[in-house]
Specification:
Chains A, B: Keywords: DNA-binding, Transcription, Transcription regulation. Chains A, B: One of its GO terms (molecular function) is DNA-binding transcription factor activity. Two copies of one chain form a homodimer. Chain A is an alpha+beta fold and 115 residues long. Chain A has six helices and three strands. In chain A, α2 packs across α4 and α3 crosses α4. The relative contact order of chain A is 0.15.
DNA sequence: TCCATAATTCAACAATCCTTGAAATATTGA
DNA sequence: TCAATATTTCAAGGATTGTTGAATTATGGA
């Protein structure tokens, strides 16, 4: 991920509705969620949620696929992982002080950890 | 770090000049850099750099201290670390797929790693 | 084909953000 | 105090972003 990509990602995540969409889709997993369901849960109008979904898609943080009448959105795990990596390595130059809390989280969730 | 704090941080990092300032200050370390020096290196006008430094300060990502005629800015490592943690744990729900690349970076720079 | 459902697109407007240059503030030294 | 340096503040304008509701597109079933 280059700096331009990171800028777009940060911009996409800097809006409350969009950050909530991403958090929701991450929890939803690969099954994803229909646009209408997202709008309902977040209590946002269909046209507004559509606008924000398009922004997230443009930034590459989510992807979509039609399923019957619905359009299912899901989080792009790879892009989110790359963003974390950019923030730690490229932006924060791998400084231990910055990476320490991240390392703690990584230790809990990494497949090679004790779990 | 709560969601509001994260939103402010993402907003602050979503602008090219500001992202460059942060990257520069992280590399500069605790010694920091004077506003004028930052402006010079990034080829941005003094008033413009001042605007962006204020935005980063408001988001808590950098801090300042006067030294003679200069005002020295430095990266807030703790805030950056918390942002990485938020992105991995709160936003990305600790998903291994997302954390994997981060774990790799963490392994290289963490003080408790093999180094 | 016709209707209902699901979502997007569009235009208009409001709100926010960025840039610019001039003026103001703070510090230092003569 | 005066001048020079370093930076910030301010106001104006332009650019971008977010919101709204109406119109449009796409799908599936009677």
């Amino acid at each position: 991920m280059d700096q331009g990509q990171a800028l777009a990602s940060f911009g996409a995540l800097s809006q409350e509705t969009r950050l909530q969409i991403v958090r929701m889709l991450v929890v939803a997993g690969p099954a994803g969620m229909a646009a209408g369901t997202i709008a309902e849960k977040l209590e946002v109008s269909p046209s507004n949620i559509s606008f924000h979904l398009k922004e997230l898609d443009r930034a590459g943080l989510i992807s979509q696929q039609r399923e019957a009448r619905s359009i299912i959105y899901s989080a792009n795990y790879h892009a989110l992982g790359e963003l974390v990596r950019f923030l730690m390595e490229d932006c924060c130059a791998g400084h231990p002080e910055i990476c320490a809390p991240a390392a703690a989280v990584a230790a809990c969730c990494a497949p090679s950890a004790k779990g």
